[in-house]
Amino acid sequence: MRNRSRIFWGLFLLVSAAILIVSQLHLLTYTFTFWTIVATIILVAFLIKSLTYFSVSGTVFSLAFLAILYAKPLGIASLSAWTILGAALLISIGLSLIFRPFLARHRPWMKKIYKYKYQWNGKGDFNSDVKTVDDPDVEVDVKMGNSTRYVESNDFKSADINVEMGNAKIYFEHVNVQDTAVINVNVSLGAAELYVPRDWNIINGLDNNLSNISENGVRKVDVDSPNVTVQGLVSLANLKITYI
């Protein structure tokens, strides 16, 4: 995590310097406004962060928004923003399917992910996948579906949650943590809700890529509370942590 953060900030500063120099030297015929430069730096920051986390959707949509921003100099002004975003969605799905083995090698938490199967219910959607898990190490993988997990463990250690264009709800209500635990999340173009005991001391190690991360409920942390780190990347998605 620290290595990726160092790479991100290093590349971000280098690219920001390049954009600033090019804009001031007027090396390009296209005139950049101040807010265009600011938006470009922000989008490039998200692009670099997505690349360091091997996030396909984050990378594709960062490029899509840059394409919308620079549609005129790129010669694609005839394309509407919705057309570009729609194409980005299809490209994101296609690349995720093609590069899934590569992504699994670079995301350790995806190597042992359960291969869930969804059944078509004839009404235009997939049945929600609901299971109770009693292992100390929990693994959840959701793609274009809905999953609910009820975790029951007397010695919870870790959870690896991967959600792409889907929704997941994970309940940690009947869970005991002996000392520390970690929850790895990778949420892209979807939503994940974590329901955790209010006496957990949640340590936020999340990276936010154009997403909404929120907390709900009242925490009651004391000296005996276990430390639980929630880390990973939330890209163009929603993550909600609710204390129960």
Description:
It contains 6 helices and 11 strands. The chain is α/β, with parallel strands linked by helices. It has 2 domains: 2-103, no CATH class; 111-243, no CATH class. It has a 6-stranded parallel beta sheet with strand order 1-3-5-7-11-9, with no helix packed on it. Helix 1 runs antiparallel to helix 2 (34-52), helix 2 runs antiparallel to helix 3 and helix 3 (56-69) packs antiparallel against helix 5 (81-98). 28% of the residues are buried.
Tell me about the largest β-sheet: 6 strands, parallel
**Whole-number radius of gyration?**
20 Å
Strand order of the largest sheet: 1-3-5-7-11-9
Overall pLDDT score: 78
**What's the tally of helices?**
6
Order of helices and strands: HHHHHHEEEEEEEEEEE
Share of residues in strands: 25-35%
